[in-house]
């Protein structure tokens, strides 16, 4: 029998799975291992012991190590992990809000809105400061979310209609993005195309520090709102019966999910399926309680993108594949298996 610690909550009683600390510790260990492995591998391999010495400020006897580790590899690896965390939390929130296990930021249209805003900034305003890109992506994703939410409103918001509208508006945003690429200047378009592939190639500490505030604000908010997500996941009628301020809490969760998803897209481009896979894997490990699921899904998402970046750099070296391509190669069959499973049910 599963061991559960029952905790009483004034809004909803929930169960904390005793497996959570063990699973979290295992995922943290795997994530640290993946980060070290990603930093150590490449055309210039470095022993993990030398990486640790360099990070601790100890002399390894090789003057190239600090530059390769701290300037070239560590920032892109940390960005990859943080992007995976943000996308996983965003996908978990959207699956909970829509009560649809096939939902993720790309299906809701969030990624498409963020991509349209980011590509517009890259193509039309190439001289814009770096910190503008996450802001533009967030505004584009938020505008898309508000538009979908407003169109779906009919004395309350329908989860199914939110999905359908997201698919339709995502197609429109993608068409507009393609128009910008077709008619934009070739230098700016080349940058936008590489960015759209979903990659952390060339990411530096500038991108890391620009992305970090979004994670520091969004992740704690998402974890703090997890019990409200539990209530909303039960359905509108049950949530109203429990005295939940339904639309206010749903709107706040949407803003948090949009902020994390939009800023992740601005930082690494369109990396799909992370927000779809991480919550499902997390549910298998710790169950569906979002207070358990959100941190576990976040670690799984960070681990997925970090491993995808490592595989993209090493599988066909010296040719480098975008991590978005690696994730898609795993995520597409995963999505099809989910679709077939739910069709049979």
Automatic annotation (TrEMBL):
Q: Which GO terms describe its cellular component?
A: plasma membrane
Just give the chief location class. membrane
Q: Where are the transmembrane segments?
A: 74-94, 106-125, 131-149, 161-186, 206-225, 252-281, 293-311, 323-342
Q: Which InterPro entries match?
A: ABC_BtuC-like, ABC_transptr_permease_BtuC
Keyword annotations: Cell membrane, Membrane, Transmembrane, Transmembrane helix, Transport
Q: How does it sit in the membrane?
A: Multi-pass membrane protein
Q: Which GO terms describe its molecular function?
A: transmembrane transporter activity
In the record, the note on similarity to other proteins reads: Belongs to the binding-protein-dependent transport system permease family. FecCD subfamily.
Name of the protein this chain belongs to: Iron ABC transporter permease
The protein's organism comes out as: Pseudanabaena catenata USMAC16
């Amino acid at each position: 029998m599963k061991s559960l610690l029952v905790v009483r909550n004034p809004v909803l009683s929930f169960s904390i799975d005793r497996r959570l600390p063990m699973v979290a510790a295992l995922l943290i260990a795997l994530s640290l291992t993946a980060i070290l492995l990603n930093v150590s591998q490449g055309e210039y391999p470095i022993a993990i012991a030398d990486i640790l010495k360099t990070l601790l400020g100890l002399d390894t006897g090789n003057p190239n190590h600090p530059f390769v580790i701290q300037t070239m590899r560590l920032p892109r690896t940390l960005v990859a992990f943080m992007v995976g965390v943000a996308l996983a939390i965003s996908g978990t929130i959207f699956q909970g809000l829509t009560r649809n296990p096939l939902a993720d930021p790309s299906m809701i249209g969030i990624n498409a809105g963020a991509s349209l805003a980011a590509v517009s900034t890259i193509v039309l305003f190439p001289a814009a400061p770096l910190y503008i890109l996450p802001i533009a992506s967030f505004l584009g994703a938020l505008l898309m979310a508000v538009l979908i939410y407003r169109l779906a409103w009919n004395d309350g918001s329908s989860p199914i209609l939110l999905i359908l509208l997201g698919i339709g508006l995502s197609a429109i945003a993608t068409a507009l993005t393609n128009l910008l690429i077709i008619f934009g200047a070739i230098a700016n378009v080349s940058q936008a195309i590489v960015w759209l592939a979903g990659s952390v190639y060339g990411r530096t500490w500038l991108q890391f520090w620009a992305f970090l505030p979004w994670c520091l604000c969004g992740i704690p908010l998402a974890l703090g709102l997890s019990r409200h997500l539990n209530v909303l996941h039960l359905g509108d009628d049950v949530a109203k019966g429990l005295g939940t301020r339904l639309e206010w809490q749903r709107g706040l969760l949407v803003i948090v999910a949009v902020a994390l998803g939009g800023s992740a897209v601005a930082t690494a481009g369109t990396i799909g399926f992370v927000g779809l896979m991480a919550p499902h894997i997390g549910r298998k490990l710790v169950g569906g309680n979002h207070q358990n699921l959100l941190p576990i899904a976040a670690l799984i998402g960070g681990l997925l993108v970090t491993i995808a970046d490592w595989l993209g750099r090493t599988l066909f070296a010296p040719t480098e594949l975008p991590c978005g391509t690696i994730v898609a190669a795993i995520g597409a069959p995963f999505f099809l298996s989910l679709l077939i499973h739910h069709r049979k049910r």
